[in-house]
Structures are given as structure tokens and as C-alpha cells.
Amino acid sequence: MRDFIREIDERKALGLYRTRRVVSGPQQPRMTADGETVLAFCSNDYLGLANHPALIEAAKSGLETNGLGGASSHLICGHHQAHHQLEERLAAFTGRTGALFFSTGYMANMGVISAMAGRGDTIFSDALNHASIIDGCKLSRATIRTYPHGDTDTLANQLAETGGHKLVVTDGVFSMDGDIAPLRELARLCKQHDALLVVDDAHGFGCVGPQGRGSVFAEGLTEDEVPLVIGTFGKAFGSSGAFVVGPAPLMDYLVQKARTYIYTTAMPPALAMASHASIDLVEHEDPRRQHLQRLIERFRSAMKDLGYSLLPSSTAIQPVMVGDAKAALRLSADLEKRGLLVTAIRPPTVPRGTSRLRVTLSASHTEADLDRLIEAFAACAPVTRSDVQPAIVTPH
Ligand SMILES: *Cc1c(COP(=O)(O)O)cnc(C)c1O
3-state SS of 254-289? Predict the structure, then answer.
């Protein structure tokens, strides 16, 4: 048998050991983690909706009218009116003709990618795509070709030399870097090479584009140009669940083929109702998005003045690059001594030598909260240069 305990010890020695904190109470910037009150800058609740009264009310009234359990899969007797209405709302919100509601974004990626490509087909995947995309590619049994992050020239060559059915998949907003994929160029290449484009905009919806309609909508790309867009309710929407939107016939195809849609219990209808309510909020929360944008700009300019190394991100995801995993843990621990919670992100979540503190800003942070974060980073002083391995400062 494998020596599992030794593997854990090896991880510890390399600074790659992972632990969990126990948080209590609602998700909000001032939260309790392992019994201590901290000011958190690492949640994906970008608009501060996870504890919004309107969503809690929608869930409560959903529980009263529809009970708790989903009780069955969608294809047996679990496809509730609440799920169906949510899909109609999602299609309207994203300007698409159809939508399909999944239990999580992880399952949406696994299900959509493995349904839309299979043995003998080729999937082209950005090197920094989310783990759930990578796993969806593996599940499909298609040939997987990775292209360097955002490198549309290499992708163009790969597409040109490959025959058969082709699928290109990318994060919209990249989850660990915060930059946005070159969507317009990807759409153009896919059209030219007859490839199906799938964009996972888990971090774009709610934050990017008019009314928070996401990075694909922000670029004005139609359903014909980007057929499948995936999103999650777990991040800016402040709820739970996920979706894919696109042409109605493809939604029908997914109902036939997406295993993570078919073989799982439908999400509690009350949660679908809370997610439905969150779309209404997201659509009308321009002030929250504007406040968030101001925080992002202030953070970037202050951190540059302090000499920290950032990535070219205009979104709420603002990684502070460190390089070495242990150095990232140390910086995170130093911030925590000052009452700030910013978790270190290390391999295998990010490539080796690119460990970082993934700072995420939220509309629920105040200007004073941001002052505290910047003061704490100032007190920690930029990580000594020897900790930064030069090759990694930009992953492009
Ligand atoms: C978080 C995330 C997912 C998974 O969504 P969940 O609903 O949390 O399972 C998928 N894709 C990306 C890019 C993500 O960041």
C-alpha cells in the first residue's frame, strides 16, 4: 500500500500542506475564523450578497412553500417549477435562448465538457483553466491539448493542424490570476476552425459587464460566437448552484448526455428561488459594482507604491505574487497577526513558483477596511526579492 502518511509529511516539508479553518456565522468581511475575529479578503462573495436579507427571505419563503429536499434527479421527478423558472430567468439575463441549472459549477464543467466532446475529438484548454475544467476534459476522454495562458497564436496553430470535432474551453475571468481571456479573438478562431467555444465565467458574472451580465456579454459576443457560457451562483450571486446558457438544442442535448446533470439529486427548490432573487439584485446593483471598482483601483495603486508584485488584473481578484510556497504562507501568517485573513494559494492550485496571496475585494468592504489591508501590507514590507523567482512574475 502507498505510504499516505509520508506523503502528507512531504507536503508539510514543502509548505504545501493544506488545512481548513472553521468559520462561524455568516460570510461577510468581518468574520470569525477558528474563534478569532478577522477581516477577510479572500472570499468570492464579490458583491456582498451571501448574507443579503432579500436572498435569505427568498430561501425562507421557498422552504415554506416547497419544503427542503430535491428528492430526485431532474429526469425522474425532481425538476421543480422553481428550477424551471430560474432557467428561463437565466436565459433572459444572459441574452441566450436556453439555460440549464446544475448543482455546482464543478459539476457544470464536468458535465458540459464531457458531453460536448468525446473519444476521438480534441479539446483545447488554456493552461490556467480551473481544476473543474481540467477534470471535465479528462472525463471526456477526448485528446487534450493545452495552450499557454491566453496565447491565441499557439492556439491558432494547434487548431489548424487538428481535424475532427474541436472544442475550445477557457475561464472568462481567470480564477487565480483575475485577468480576462481574449474572448473576441477566441471566438474568431473558433468560427474560423469550426470549433465549439465554451467559456466558464464563474468570476465574471455579477462583476463584469453591464448589469453584471459577465465577460462574454461585456464583449458583445452573441450566442452564435460563444455558444456555451457557464456560471456559478456560489460567487458574486452569493447563493449556490450553477448554470450553462446557450442554444436551446444544445441544452436539450445536455439533458440527454451530461452525466453530472442526470445522475444527481436536484438542488433544493428553495435554493433555486434564492438564486433567482439574486439575479434581480445583481442586475440592479451598479452602485455595488462601482464601489468595488474604486476599491480595486485604490488597492492596485497602493500596492504598487509599496513595491509588491501584482498581475495585470482589472477584476476583484488581485493576486499578490510571492513565488515560494513557504514565503507565501509566512506573508499570510504575518497579515493574520494583524487581524487580516488572506489565504496563500500554492501548487497544485497554481503553477510551481507562482505561490501568491489571492486578495479578493468585495463591495461589502468599506474604504476603511481597505485602509487596514494596505496598512498591514505596508507593515509586512514587500517579500524579500530573493523569495521571488523571476521567471514567474507574469505567467504569460
Ligand atoms: C469556483 C469555480 C468553479 C466551481 O464552481 P462551484 O459552483 O463553486 O462548484 C468553476 N469554475 C471556475 C473558474 C471557478 O472559479
Answer: HHHHCHHHHCCECCCHHHHHHHHHHHHHHHCCHHHH
pTM of the model: 0.95
Kindly indicate the confidence band of residue 383, based on its pLDDT and cuts at 50, 70 and 90: low
Report the topology of domain 15-47+286-379. Aspartate Aminotransferase, domain 1 (3.90.1150)
CA–centroid distance, residue 39 to ligand 1 (Å): 23
Q: Is 215 in the active site?
A: no
Every domain of the chain with CATH number 3.40.640.10 lies at: 53-283
The cell for 221 is: 459576443
Q: How far apart are the first and last CA of the chain?
A: 40
Ramachandran region, residue 304 (left: φ > 0; alpha: ψ -120 to 50; beta: rest): alpha
User: What is the distance between the alpha carbons of residues 2 and 24, in angstroms, rounded to a whole number?
Assistant: 36
- Answer whether CATH 3.40.640.10 is correct for domain 53-283: yes
**291 assigned to active site:** no
Active-site residue among 83, 203, 276, 365?
203
Are 278 and 49 contacting, i.e. CB atoms less than 8 angstroms apart?
Answer: yes
Catalytic residue among 103, 132, 175, 355: 175
CATH 3.90.1150.10 domain extents, the chain: 15-47+286-379
Ligand 1: which of 107, 128, 175, 208 to mutate, most ligand atoms within 8 Å of CB? 175
pLDDT tens profile 245-285: 999 999 999 999 999 999 999 999 999 999 999 999 999 99
Residue 276 known to be catalytic: no
